[in-house]
Amino acid sequence: MKTGTVTTPDGLTLATYESGTPTGPAILFIHGFSQSALCWRAQLTDPALQGFRLAAYDVRGHGGSDQPADPATYADDARYAADTAAVMRALGLDRPTLVGWSYAGRLINDYLRAHGDTRIAGINYVCARTRTDPAFNGPGCRFLKAMQGDDLTAEIAATRAFLDACFATPPPPDLMAEALAYNMRMRPATRRAQLSRPPDDGAIMAAITCPVLITQGSEDQLVSQGLAHVTAAAIPHARLSLYERIGHSPFIEDAARFNRELAEFVLSCRS
Fold first, then answer.
1. Residue 57, SS3?
2. Radius of gyration (Cα) for the chain, nearest Å?
3. How would you label 3-33 residue by residue, b for 16+ Cβ within 10 Å and e otherwise?
4. Which pLDDT does position 271 carry in this prediction?
5. Taking Cα atoms as reference points, which of 64, 49, 105, 122 lies closest to residue 248?
6. 3-state percent helix, strand, coil for the chain, nearest multiple of 5
7. How far apart are CA 171 and CA 224, in angstroms?
8. For the chain, which domains are there?
């Protein structure tokens, strides 16, 4: 992977990751809460996807991106929308398909409110939190409170439990060790600031006209399957792909199927 940086309109530096074919159909991967773009390794390095223009970035406050102490840095929808637009512009992504995991469902909606969907080819919501209704919180969300505290021992234990809840079947130990490392780069105060954002009702989804694929694990312990059906109902032309016996991370737990469906979807968005 090629790594780099992008500067946001408010002066933050975001870490970026690129692979694939520069002239191929573009895909922009956006990770979930407390994670990093490194979670997309099985996509960014898959030989079957190298014909596409693959890109990802660490969301502000995450991974290798800047993590300012000011809570206001993480409050406004417009800042996140501007971040996504800045990455698209700086990397020269022509009408990318946006792929958003978990919390990134909201980040995609932030982008849509500011820019609409005319500059993107499609959207893949992956176990996505497309509205901030606690009714759709899975049992794994109970670990978020301790992840925001200042007791380091409790924070580490809660972060490990949170990561365990991301999978129906545990991944290899080296993958979990890497995930714990980049999750722990996010400070508790930054977690508190991001989780304190005003709620999003997801109403913007009714205005989506581009193709949409909804990917959902049946055993998701963080975002309940019911929210995927709510998302599908809000976007009548969307296609719902349900992964049986898969948890919150279908792009890792069944990467072969995920990558195949993503490739087919991206090409269909261009036809």
1. strand
2. 17
3. eeebebeeebebbbbbbbeeeebbbbbbbbb
4. 74
5. 105
6. 45, 15, 40
7. 21
8. 2-270 (3.40.50.1820)
Backbone angles phi, psi at 254, to 5 degrees: -140, 65
pLDDT value of position 240: 98
With beta carbons less than 8 A apart as the criterion, state whether 58 and 190 touch: no
Has residue 270 got a pLDDT over 90? Answer: no
Tokens read off for 147 = 């992840």
Identify the pLDDT of residue 213. 98
Tokens of 241: 């792909």
- H/E stretch holding 100: strand 97-101
Contact 14, 60 (CB under 8 A): yes
Work out the widest C-alpha separation in the chain, in whole angstroms: 52
pLDDT of residue 119: 97
Q: How far apart are CA 188 and CA 194, in angstroms?
A: 10
User: What number is the average pLDDT over the span 247-260?
Assistant: 98
pLDDT tens for 27-58 read 999 999 999 999 999 999 999 999 999 999 99
Query: Could you give the angle at which helices 104-115 and 77-90 cross, rounded to 10 degrees?
Result: 80
> Among residues of the chain, what percentage have pLDDT more than 90?
99
